[in-house]
Amino acid sequence: MSRKKRIAVDMDEVIADVRPKFLDLYEREFGWRPEKKDYWGKKIYQVNGALQIREFLHEKGFFADLPVMPGSREVLSELKEDYEIYITTAAMEFRASLEDKYDWMHRHFPFIHWKQIVFCGDKSIIHADYMIDDHPHNLHSFIGKGLLYTASHNIEEEAFTRVNDWAEIKKFFQEELKKGA
Amino acid sequence: MSRKKRIAVDMDEVIADVRPKFLDLYEREFGWRPEKKDYWGKKIYQVNGALQIREFLHEKGFFADLPVMPGSREVLSELKEDYEIYITTAAMEFRASLEDKYDWMHRHFPFIHWKQIVFCGDKSIIHADYMIDDHPHNLHSFIGKGLLYTASHNIEEEAFTRVNDWAEIKKFFQEELKKGA
User: What whole-number distance in Å separates Cα of residue A65 and Cα of residue A101?
Assistant: First the structure.
C-alpha cells in the first residue's frame, strides 16, 4: 500500500466561518448590515472602505468562537481514512490569534492531532499533495493541486478547481480515489 | 537569476539554547547540576530518569528568555542575502509556548518576517531545500538536504551531515554557493 496523499486545509473561510463575525462587527461600527449583494466580489471590510474592521483580527477572542463551516468536520473526519489531513493557517500575522486558533482546533476538531496543525505565514513552505484555500495567492505558490474554496473575495478567480462547500470537496476526493490519484 | 534556495531552521537547540534552563531546573529539583559527562548522549531530563523536568516545557515563560545560540543571529542575517530563511519549530505540542516563541522571534530575529515563521508538529509538512535540526526524525522525513545540529541527545547519529556550531553552518553554505548548489 502506497502512502496516503496529503491534504493541506486552510482554517479561516474554509473550516472556520469568519463571515458572520465580520458582518456583526460591521453592523456594530456602521449601523447597518451589508447583504450579499454588497460584499459579493470583495472582503466585507472593503464594503464602502471599512478597513478598520480588519483590525479586529488582532484582538484576543476574534478567532475563539467562530462557527465551524457546515460539513467540514464530518467530511474531514471521513477523508482522514484515506488521506493525511493537515490544517495550515496563516496565523503568524496575528499574535493574538495563536492560542485562540489552537483552542478552537482542539475543541472542534479533536481528531486532528497537534502534529497535523501548522501556523505559518507564506504557504509556499507547505509540502502536500492538495491544498484547499480561499486565497488564490496561497494556491499560486503551492506545488500540488489547489482547490479554491469559494469566498466573497475570490469569485472572479478562474485559475483553480473551485469548491463551493464541503459536499463538493467530499465529491472531489471520492472521484480522486476512484481514479487512483 | 534563479530563485533563492530555502533553508528551514529549527528553534530549540539550534537558534535558542535550551540547555542552561534545563540544567537550572534540574539543579533546582534535584540539588545538583549535571555536567557534560552526565548528559552527553542523552537529554538532560534523562539523567537518572528525571522525566518530570520535561513537563516544564508546558509552562508559560519557559521559552520566553532562552539565550540566542551563539552566532545564529549573525550567520542567519548573512545567509538571508543568498537564501530564503524559514524558522520551523514543532511548537504545537506546547500551547503555552506559542506566544513566548512568537515574541522571542520578534525580539531576537527582527529581520525574519512573520511570513517566514512556522509553528508545526510533524515536519514532513515542510517544503524547503535544506533543514537544520537537532532531531534526526525531522530530517528523516525531510525531502531536501538535512543538516544535524549537534545536541547532547544526537551525538551517535551518523545519517546526516553534522554541524557543531553556527560557524560550521556558515562554512557549509559558503561551499554550497561556490558549488552553485
Answer: 10
Question: Cβ(A120)–Cβ(B117) under 8 Å?
Answer: yes
- With contact defined as beta carbons under 8 Å apart, do B91 and B119 qualify? yes
Collapse the DSSP code of B1 into the 3-class scheme (helix H, G, I; strand E, B; otherwise coil) and give the result.
coil
Cell numbers found for residue B128? 524547503
d(C-alpha A126, C-alpha B109), whole Å:
22
Residue-averaged pLDDT of chain A? 96
pLDDT digits (tens, 9 = 90+) for B63-119: 999 999 999 999 999 999 999 999 999 999 999 999 999 999 999 999 999 999 999
Neighbours of B126 (CB within 10 A): 24
Distance between CA atoms of B28 and B83, rounded to whole angstroms? 42
Is pTM, for the whole model, over 0.90?
Answer: yes
All residues of chain A having their beta carbon less than 8 Å from the beta carbon of residue B143 are: 127
B114:A121 CB<8 A:
yes
The Cα–Cα gap between B45 and B25 comes to 10
Q: Which domains are delineated in chain A? A: 5-17+67-180 (3.40.50.1000), 19-58 (no CATH)
Give the distance from residue B121's alpha carbon to the nearest chain A alpha carbon, in angstroms.
Answer: 4
- What is the tens place of the pLDDT at every residue in A77-91? 999 999 999 999 999
Per the CB < 8 A criterion, the answer to whether B121 and B90 are in contact is: yes
Which one of A91, A117, A124 has the shortest CB-CB distance to B127? A124
Contacts of A153 (CB under 8 A, 6+ apart): A41, A42, A43, A46, A134
The distance of B106 to chain A (nearest Cα, Å) reads 11
pLDDT digits (tens, 9 = 90+) for A116-137: 999 999 999 999 999 999 999 9
| Mean pLDDT score, B17-28 | 96
Give the Cα separation of A126 and A143 in Å (integer). 8
For residue A43, CA distances in Å to A13, A116, A121 come to: 11, 29, 20
Residues of B marked active site are found at: 10, 12
